[in-house]
Amino acid sequence: MPFKVKKKILKLKESSTLVINEKSKELISKGKKIYQFGFGQSPFPVPDTIVDSLKKNAYRKEYLPIQGLPELREEISKYLLKRTGNDYPKENILITPGSKEAMLLIHLAFNGEIIIPAPGWVSYEPQAEIGSNKVHWLKTLRSNNWFPTSQELEKKIKSVGKNKNLILILNSPNNPSGTTCNNLMELAKVAKKYKILILSDEIYTDLTFSNDYSSISKFYPELTFITSGLSKWCGAGGWRLGFLAVPKKLTEFLRSLKSLASESYSTVNTPTQYASIEAYANDHELYKLKVRAILKAVGNYVYENLKSNKILIAPPQGAFYLMPEFKNKKYKTSSQLCETILDETGVAMLPGSDFGFKPSKMLTRLSYTDFDGFEFFRNVTNCRQIDDEMIKKFAPNVVEGVSKLSNWAKNL
């Protein structure tokens, strides 16, 4: 009897961000020059004090509580209070193996439908499908920073059904656009009017170039979940440490999430949880200041050297992404466009169709982190003096890849 797989699982494909990373490495191993603009990974070193804390706690091997180390949850609670002004008590914090797992748990427990503004991260829709929750994409425009207006959100809620159980996923700064949401208060008013839940993915919020931690929970704390973790601001993606903050009104829902956690990953690894106390107990503002300064400078370099009458692009506002749109009549899909660019220039990017856009829309995601973050970080002494010459010296792959992409686009 053949082995059978559930239909909804058969429909899934491997995450495109991970696939492009593996494909780029495979091509590099074969001797091809590849500019790795496809995979969004922080290139920077984890702060020394946090690494030292991990070393000191490496001997710990006991299982921790399902919900996570109480001391860590307390520090995260304080961190959120300071940044959002809202009290998510430690009893309402769940430690997870990355924020990605926190979102998956929500989808598995939640019984309803999901609204995702396009562009949206590649895993939002597949996770909803795993949880058997119907997805409704909400189109956005560059003119509004690739976020929905309050009118567009209200119209979408009404079209889906205002009496349905809904979650709106919001991610600012946004992956893949690198833009920030400037109308959080207006969106919160609409969400509050219809009593819908919000999942605020704040994994990049500490990397907002304006240094303004803007969370929609400031305006709608009663039904806003917050997910975040160490992977982006701290450069510790492989540590797999994330958290979910659950509103006080949804404590019963948290119990279901804990049950799912207990039957899947049991608990997040112990040494990393102890080390993460150091990550959240202290601001690490000098570290973050330098990381933001480098990313902003490199992002602006890419923006200034790509924007043209052939490439439409919004300036970077946070995270480490840009979303170029190519004017062309040669290619039918953004996937075809990306495959051709990779083949002809060595520049690896992801197609806009992976982020909720129609395949015919010639948008791509470009991650400008293909540089030695350790070396760049070490050589920055003045965050206000990161000029083009410094970028050329410490981010040569970015400079060369952008040049190849810009020259390629001239022939469209």
Task: Give an overview in words.
The radius of gyration is 21 Å and the shape is globular. The protein has helices at residues 7-10, 16-29, 48-56, 70-84, 99-109, 124-130, 150-160, 184-194, 251-262, 270-281, 285-306, 334-345, 373-379, 388-394, 396-409, and strands spanning 35-36, 93-96, 113-118, 134-139, 166-171, 197-201, 224-229, 242-245, 311-312, 321-322, 325-326, 347-348, 350-351, 364-367. α4 packs parallel to α10. The chain has two domains: 7-45 and 285-409, Aspartate Aminotransferase, domain 1, CATH 3.90.1150.10; 49-281, 3-Layer(aba) Sandwich (Aspartate Aminotransferase, domain 2), CATH 3.40.640. β5, α8 and β6 form a beta-alpha-beta unit. The protein has a seven-stranded mixed beta sheet with strand order 2-8-7-6-5-3-4, sandwiched between helices. Strands 10-14-13 form a three-stranded antiparallel beta sheet. By secondary structure, the protein is α/β, with parallel strands linked by helices.
Query: Which CATH architecture of the largest domain?
Result: 3-Layer(aba) Sandwich
Number of strands: 14
Query: Over all CA atoms, what is the radius of gyration?
Result: 21 Å
Compute the separation of the termini in Å: 53 Å
The total domain count is 2
Would you tell me the structural class of the helices and strands? alpha/beta
Helix content: 40-55%
